[in-house]
Amino acid sequence: MNFTMMETQALSSKKAEGDPYLHLQIDSKTQVLLPMKTTQEVLITTANRLTVMPNMLPCFLGLLNQRSRIFWIVDLGKLLDLSPLKPDVQQYSIAIIREGKQALGLAVEKVKGVTRFPPEKIQSPIGTVEVGLIPYLKGCIAQERQILLILDSEAILNTPTLH
């Protein structure tokens, strides 16, 4: 493959910006990043579009029929033993993640957009976050006043809590 000088510069600047992540807010203190390569789509839906299923764990909010496909929707904060969504919420911000044939909707307080970070900014979460969170993380990024947690989509999809 031959690239022109401009194409090479564009590729280099993209790489310099870093890998893309979906920036999610779980609560006023906790923000997480999802790798874009595992994020299928983002949507905002009303609470009444979810079909609540009886006898499910509290982190399960229900089933969502989206474009003739059914997705389980979980409260990401509750799943990670962080702050759950407010019980009287009227609409959900949902990021649907996919690894192979597995898919899951993660409901959060707010979707903040897409951001990029170079791999060298990622640090180990050990000693920075609670031990219970570590199995769900690929790392973290220290910002000025907060720590952004980088989620491991595969670990979330395969957590024993969901099976």
In short:
This protein is mostly beta strands. The protein has helices at residues 5-17, 76-79, 153-157, and strands at 19-25, 31-35, 39-46, 60-66, 69-75, 91-99, 102-108, 110-117, 137-142, 147-151.
Secondary structure layout plus pairing:
Elements: H1 5-17, E1 19-25, E2 31-35, E3 39-46, E4 60-66, E5 69-75, H2 76-79, E6 91-99, E7 102-108, E8 110-117, E9 137-142, E10 147-151, H3 153-157
Parallel strand pairs: 2-10, 5-7
Antiparallel strand pairs: 1-2, 1-8, 3-6, 4-5, 6-7, 9-10
What does this molecule look like?
This protein is mainly β and 163 residues long. It has one domain: OB fold (Dihydrolipoamide Acetyltransferase, E2P). The protein has three helices and ten strands; from the N terminus they run αβββββαβββββα. The chain has helices at residues 5-17, 76-79, 153-157, and strands at 19-25, 31-35, 39-46, 60-66, 69-75, 91-99, 102-108, 110-117, 137-142, 147-151. The protein has a five-stranded mixed sheet. A five-stranded mixed sheet has the order 3-6-7-5-4. The radius of gyration is 17 Å and the shape is globular. The chain starts with a helix and ends in a 6-residue tail after the last helix.
